[in-house]
Specification:
Number of strands: 7
Strand order of the largest sheet: 4-5-7-6
Order of helices and strands: HHEHHEEHHHEEHHEE
Distance between the termini: 26 Å
Largest sheet: 4 strands, antiparallel
Shape: elongated
CATH topology of the largest domain: Muramoyl-pentapeptide Carboxypeptidase, domain 2
């Protein structure tokens, strides 16, 4: 998740800091069916024009989604006109600063356990493969941003963007790229060797697929990821 994505997540969560908006959101998600503006107004005792404004804001922030339907039982002029109904969005929002990606760690481990159960490969070997496979996915992201005449600086810039989007916070220092953040920080404190191995396998597999020669080094340091990337200049 890059800077813009984090800002969007924070904005969505901040929207719930407004008491009226939070009250309406809680009312909508507590119902077993989509909620119209009239239903929300009656259920919260909030004026309809206030309900309309705030429900639409929650929709804009991605916390609610809307659909149109004709209410049953309505009679008279305009009875057949579709009404806007709101329900909770399927979007999952979580913000962690510094950025963490424990969901990725869980995914890699789940893949490794599943692969180990289906074959004779050890969990360690399966986890190494899962991490490496994901590293090659990141390499595809990097290479997809480059043209055929990309310079070394272009490649390093693209590497930095992709790593930043996945929580590593890369910082260039001379001929090395330091990763100022470990996306799996809490896990790395208790399972240091395991998590450092995952990071190393992931990033090494990524740089091996790039059009320039870079090296991923297992080089632990205080307050940063255990992997550095050398050969960037």
């Amino acid at each position: 998740m890059g800077t813009e994505a984090i800002r969007a997540e924070v904005s969505s969560l901040a929207s719930l800091g407004d008491p009226t908006r939070r009250r309406l959101y809680e009312f909508v998600v507590a119902q077993g069916e989509p909620v119209s503006r009239d239903m929300a107004s009656a259920g919260t005792d909030i004026a309809r024009h206030v309900v309309k404004f705030n429900l639409d804001k929650l929709e804009e922030e991605g916390l609610l989604v809307a659909e149109y339907a004709r209410p049953s039982g309505r009679k008279g002029p305009g009875a057949g006109r579709p009404t806007k109904f709101y329900k909770r969005s399927s979007r999952e929002i979580s913000v962690s600063l510094p950025e963490r990606h424990y969901d990725l760690a869980a995914q890699l481990l789940a893949e490794a356990i599943t692969a180990s159960q289906k074959s004779s490969i050890s969990i360690d070997g399966a986890l190494k493969k899962s991490a490496s496979d994901f590293g090659r996915v990141l390499a595809d992201e990097v290479n997809g941003q480059l043209d055929k005449r990309a310079s070394k600086a272009n490649v390093v810039e693209s590497v930095s963007r992709v790593l930043e989007a996945h929580g590593y916070e890369p910082r260039q220092n001379g001929e090395q790229l330091f990763l100022s953040n470990c996306p799996f920080h809490a896990l790395s404190q208790e399972y240091t060797s395991l998590i450092c191995g995952v990071n190393h396998d992931l990033i090494r597999a990524m740089v091996e697929e790039l059009p320039i020669s870079l090296a991923a080094n297992l080089e632990p340091g205080d307050g940063r990821c255990c992997v550095t990337i050398s050969g960037i200049s």
